[in-house]
Amino acid sequence: MKESEGKVTFENASKFLLKDLPLRMNNRPVSIDADMEDLINLAKVQNFVPVVDDMNRFIGIVRRSQVIEYCEKFVSKQSQESL
Question: Max CA-CA distance within the chain?
């Protein structure tokens, strides 16, 4: 980052190159054959989880909301069974 290593603001953003800006997030991927538990653990700390194939190539994204919806099905199923 240039510009005297200063912070990027709305006013000075045009003076920085995108490639020079540090990334704030480091979203770890999950393998296509990973357990659901691995996906849930990553989704707890990431808004989305990249999915990679066995050659470590990106093939998609699973959003945290999708993981919550998946888990919700089990919670509602268990509550219906206890009635």
Answer: 65
Tokens for 40, please give them: 């849930």
pLDDT tens digits, 11-48: 888 888 888 777 767 889 999 999 999 999 999 999 99
Strand order, beta sheet including 58-63: 30-31, 48-52, 58-63
Instruction: List domains and CATH numbers for the chain.
Output: 3-81 (3.10.580.10)
Q: Whole-model pTM?
A: 0.64
Nearest-5° Cα angle at 37, 36 to 40: 85
- Give the angle subtended at the CA of 27 by the CAs of 29 and 73, to the nearest 5°: 70
- What end-to-end distance do the CA atoms of the chain give, in Å? 60
Listed in sequence order, the residues at least 6 apart from 28 whose beta carbon sits closer than 8 Å to its beta carbon are: 42, 46, 49, 50
